[in-house]
Amino acid sequence: MNTLDNIEVDITVELGAAIMPVHHLLRMGRGAVIELDTGENDPLRVYANNTLIARGEVKVEDGRLSVELTEKVRRPA
């Protein structure tokens, strides 16, 4: 079991995405709002090492944010 303790996995949680030119991004200031391609009730996506593994939703309890997984994504055989 000790060998599993040394395996690194990069976890990414994606709320949504947006495409914009770099010059537009560079002009943005603090507090700027970027409109994403998802709504507030759409599931977020969870990636492990750039592979989609699950979908979920954001939960707020006692002022703390967490991610609740609602669906495991199955890889094609």
TrEMBL record:
Domain of life: Bacteria
Protein topology in the membrane: Peripheral membrane protein
Matches recorded under Gene3D superfamilies: SpoA-like
Keyword match Membrane: yes
Subcellular location: Cell membrane
Entry's Gene Ontology cellular component terms: bacterial-type flagellum basal body; plasma membrane
Biological-process GO terms, alphabetical: bacterial-type flagellum-dependent cell motility; chemotaxis
Domain annotation Flagellar motor switch protein FliN-like C-terminal: ranges: 3-73
Pfam families, A to Z: FliMN_C
Alphabetized InterPro entries for the sequence: FliN-like_C, FliN/MopA/SpaO, FliN_T3SS_HrcQb, SpoA-like_sf
One GO MF term attached to the UniProt entry: cytoskeletal motor activity
Swiss-Prot/TrEMBL keywords: Cell membrane, Cell projection, Chemotaxis, Cilium, Flagellar rotation, Flagellum, Membrane
Family recorded in the similarity comment: Belongs to the FliN/MopA/SpaO family.
Name of this chain's protein: Flagellar motor switch protein FliN
Organism: Devosia insulae DS-56
